[in-house]
Every structure is written in C-alpha cells, then in structure tokens.
Amino acid sequence: MNPVPSPWQPAARTDRRNPLTTSMPTVRPDRRHLASGIPGPLSSAFEARRRAAVARGVGSAVPVYAAAADPGLLHDIDGNAFIDLASGLGVTAVGNAAPDVVAAVREQVGLFTHTCFLTSPYSGYVEVCEELSNLTPGRHEKRSVLLSTGAEAVENAVKVARAATGRSAIVVLDHAYHGRTNLALGMTAKNAPFKQGFGPFAPDIHRVPTSYPYRDPQGMTGEEAAQRALEALERQVGGENVAAIVVEPVQGEGGFIVPAPGFLPALQSWCREHGALFVADEIQSGFCRTGAWFASEHEDLVPDLVITAKALAGGLPLSAVTGRAEIMDAVQLGGFGGTYGGNPVACAAALASIEVMRTGHLVDSARAIGDTLFTRLRALAVRHPAIGEVRGRGAMVGVEIVEPGGRRPGAEAAQRLAKACQQRGVLLLTAGTHSNVLRFLPPLVIPPALLNDAVDVIEECCDELLA
Ligand SMILES: *Cc1c(COP(=O)(O)O)cnc(C)c1O
C-alpha cells in the first residue's frame, strides 16, 4: 500500500548552492548592468516559491534575489547589477561584505560562534563597549549593554530610563520610528502598515509634535516648535512624570526630517531641568551616516542615552544602549540580558567596521556624498515643482515629492519614481509618514562614478515621470 504523503513532509531539497555559481558570469560587472528584465527569470521563480513559503506580511521593495554585493553594487541571481542607494536600510555603511569585516567574521566564527555573554564572557563584547564609550558624544564616564536588534535596544533604553528615574512616562515625537516590537511600535508613529491590527500597545507612551520645517507654519523656529512640544507634554503628561524624551536626531522612516536648529537642544535643556533623560535613537543616523560619528553632534547634544544598531556591525545583527555610568548602572545585576545579545561574531564585525570607519575617514566620505547629492538634487528640484524639498545631513538625504503647486504629499509619484529607478538598475527606496519621500542611504564607500550614474538615472526618471 502506498503511504499517503504527509502534508507536513518538507519539499524535496533542491540544490542549495548559490544560484550565482551556476547562472552568473565569473566576472561581476563593476557598474550598473541590466542582464534581464526586472525581475529576471531566476528571481521570478524564487518569487513563486516565496509566495508558497514566506508569510505575506513580509514585504520587499524589489523582487530581485541577491547573489553578491560590492561597495555600491548589488548583484542579483539573474546577473543584474543595481547601484545600491539603500545599504540594506543604512546598515552596510562600510560596504557590503567589506573585506576587513569578512576577515574578522571568518576568524571569529572559526574560534567560537557563541557562548552567551551571560554564561561566559569574551573580549569582543568589552571592546565594543569601550569603542562606544569613546565614540558617542560627551566625555563623561559611560557604560553600554549590547543587544541584537534596534527595537530590542530601544526597549532596553526604556528600561534604563524607568529604573534610573523611578518614573514611567516616555515621550516620543510625531513621525517617529523606533521599531516593531510591541513597546517599540507604541513609540512608532505611523499606523499602516506598522501598527495596524497589532494593538493594544504598551501604556504611558505619549506623542507630541515634532519640528518639521517643511510642514510647520512658515518661519517657525526650533525653539517655537520645542515650546509647542513641551506645552503639550506638560499639559498631557506632567513634567514630573516623564522618565525620558526619546528623539531621532534626524528622523529616518518618518521622512528624513531634520528638525529646525534649536529644537533638540531645547528638549535636552528641558530634560535637564526636569530630571528626565534625553535619549537619542541614533540607530539610523549614527556611525558616520550624517557626516559626523553621531547626528547629535551637529547641535552639540550630549544625550544621556544613545541607542545604536544598523551600521554598528557592518551587516551583522548587533545593537547597543550607551549612557552615563550612574544611569546605566541603575539597572540591577541580571536586569539586562538575552541569549544572543552581543554575539561574538557580531562583535568582531563591529570592531572591524568601526576600524574601517575610522581609518577610511567615512565621516568625510558621508559629507562628500551629501555634497554631490544636495548639489545635483537641488538643481533638479529647480525644474521640477513636484520636488518639494531636498533635505538631510551628509549621506542621509530625503527628497519630498508633492503635488505641483502646493505641498500635498505626492505618494503615488514617489512610488512610481522609485519603481522606475529600480527598473533601470538603481535601488532607491521611499520613506515618510505619507510614503512620499525618496530616501538616499548609499554605502559610505560608494565610488563617485556609481553615485553620479545613479543620480543621472533619477534625473531621467524625474524628467519622464514628473509633471
Ligand atoms: C531601524 C530603526 C529602528 C529599529 O531597528 P530594528 O533593528 O529594525 O529593530 C529603530 N529606530 C530607528 C531610528 C531605526 O531607523
């Protein structure tokens, strides 16, 4: 009798070798290259398998499957080469598969892959914390805890703030993005798709208006915007209840919003006067991205806590909370932890990445990238009234698309532009509460010729698609 196949039987294992080895030319193109339609046949085949295996809730901006990456280029399994303006969401600042990071990871992974720092410690963890003490703003004594993801670090910063102040209210801003765990979602502003259907969210999180110069009343200063936020806070929360104000010094997912000068310093001063912590979520803006090691430096901010992740470890999952020693050490022994936090391979990658940032002067590279992008995109904005604003700091640049003649968000046009760029071999993403901001987050080691070619493509797409 033939056994009825169990519905749980896994599909027959097919060849798991990287399809690159069978389908791609041995020499990878060193510039933008279209070998097939986007997506090509191999990627399309994986899309079909994906639909049957991967949950629908996981999206992808471009349905092409990665095979390899160089500084500035992402190669797919069909042999297409895309100019990378996304860095895997601002992660591979030192370049994807950066040789020094790869070497450090290879060495560590051959020694030990994991012990759990709570079981038996290792030097890499301590060294990453030392680097964080030295690099983050302020010369005071600091301590750090290492975690795995940005959202997890945000959660731990909230723990610290509550333990250190004995208060519970957490104040966040309009357009904020702090991650996707339940507590982090409560702090994130945008409903769909991030929060829709997932409530209720953790209590005692309060949202106040931010400074969004392009959309605030004309001429509103940073101090005035801070006044607006602090009045709301005092009315709705009560100053004496606030454990922390958590800000992104440049808002990322919310639309690459740079607050007006004076806004963040005023919030910091208020925190100092009222015994609350000023917490900077530098997960996206940190590690050279904005033309400084941390975006807080642009306004001489010295946050009580700095949250880092993304570019910290060159593509491996690692995050951290770094802060004043006495504040961090308010958390009791055993109050921090997690199986994977500060994984040794991720720590090795972080130490190598930080060394590349330092010796490669990636702060300067970020500024140079910003100069190119601002000059060329602002020139483009002059002939396209649908480009409402070009803004950002360093290599964190956003282009807000609007309906010509006004400032109503042009989400559809922004999505069409991003798609058109992708079809021509430029990996460009969008962001923003209204999904109408083109976001530029290139690796900080992108060769200038690739960056300029990408902007040529964007110009072409704008000229064809924008009114
Ligand atoms: C990406 C991001 C997070 C969340 O990090 P994950 O690693 O995705 O959990 C939090 N805050 C900011 C500012 C981010 O950009």
TrEMBL record:
Transmembrane segments: none annotated. One of its GO terms (molecular function) is pyridoxal phosphate binding. One of its GO terms (biological process) is gamma-aminobutyric acid metabolic process. Pfam families: Aminotran_3. Pathway: Amino-acid degradation; 4-aminobutanoate degradation. The keyword Transferase applies. Its cofactor is pyridoxal 5'-phosphate. Residues 1-39 are annotated as: Disordered. The keyword Transferase applies. Keywords: Aminotransferase, Pyridoxal phosphate, Transferase. It catalyses: 4-aminobutanoate + 2-oxoglutarate = succinate semialdehyde + L-glutamate; (S)-3-amino-2-methylpropanoate + 2-oxoglutarate = 2-methyl-3-oxopropanoate + L-glutamate. Its EC number is 2.6.1.19, 2.6.1.22. Belongs to the class-III pyridoxal-phosphate-dependent aminotransferase family. This is (S)-3-amino-2-methylpropionate transaminase. It comes from Streptomyces antibioticus. The lineage of its organism: Bacteria, Bacillati, Actinomycetota, Actinomycetes, Kitasatosporales.
